Structures are given as C-alpha cells and as structure tokens.
Amino acid sequence: MSLALDxxxxxxxxREARTAxxxxxxxxxxxxVQAIYDLVKYGPTAFNQTPLRITLVRSPExxxxxxxxxxxxxxxxxxxxxxxxxxSADNEFHEELPALLPHFPQAKDMFFSExxxxxxxxxxxxxxxxxxxxxxxxxxxxxxxxxxGLDFAGLQKEFLDDDHTPLMVVNIGKPGEDAWFPxxxxxxxEDVVTTV
Length: 196
Fold this sequence. Notes:
alpha+beta; globular; 4 strands
C-alpha cells in the first residue's frame, strides 16, 4: 500500500530530512516563519488548546544571551544558525479556550482551573505542536535542529516568565557545508507496533 503523500514530499519531510550541524548564510525571513505557522497551526491538540509559543531569536544581543545557556556542543550551531526559535508551553493557554473551542467554552473551567492540570496538558500538547513545527520547517525546504541540551532554568529566566515552560531550542536554516552526521538507525515496525 502506498501513502497518499507524494514520495518526494515524504522524502522532504521524513526520509531525507536531517538535523543540520552547519548552516548556509541565507536568512530565514518572517514571511517563511509565518507560512510555516499558517500550515502547522492545523495540527490537532486536545481541546484545540494550542499552548505552543514561539520566541524568535534574531538580534545579536539575544543570540549571545541564548548561546550561553546552550550545552557546549550545541553552542556553535546555535551561534551560526540563520534563525533560532525557543519553543515553550503557555501554562495559561486556557484563557484562549473560549475562542478556540466555541462549542465547549466551559472546558476552560471544567478541566483547566487548576495550575497542575494546565501545566501537564500544556507541556504534552505544546510538545505535539513542536513536532508539527519541525515538520513545517522541513516543508519550507529548511533544516530544523531541535535541541534540549541546554540550561532550562537559565533559559526560562532569560527569555520567558513563570507562565511559560521551555521545551526546546530549534536552529533553523538552509544546511551548510558538511551539515550531516551519518543517519542513525531506527526501530523496525515489528519492534514498535503491537496488536492486541
């Protein structure tokens, strides 16, 4: 059985997509990021809560502040990527629910009145949206380099507030010279899927 998605698109989004370790100098524009978001915003989340928040790091000063929070091995990539995005979960996402879930506005208070429930749901669903974002970056013909090797507490203090939980940093851009490490193995279907 074949997939409905064109094989070239399958390669672009998955089989040939890689995390770049070097980047070309070509900038990533606000228009490209807008197009990525306008595509991936349709990915499903529980209660349509959409807790992902994206902080684009563009200025040299902000880049310098960010790089110091990255693990040493990630610093060169983050320092040289054309664009870096900090992805976080908005723990106050429930304030948007009446507009995002107009047929069930009471969900805001029924399920998310308590902060611990919101935090758990925000992180889970924002991580799901982060995966959509990475695929969207690939759909734009760019490489996405998601990284969690960083000082999360320092990053939060530097760029976010207590209502936002940092999830990852994503380097974005056209791949540069010698951008790829060899492809790591993947688990087989039989290793992953169980039928009950």
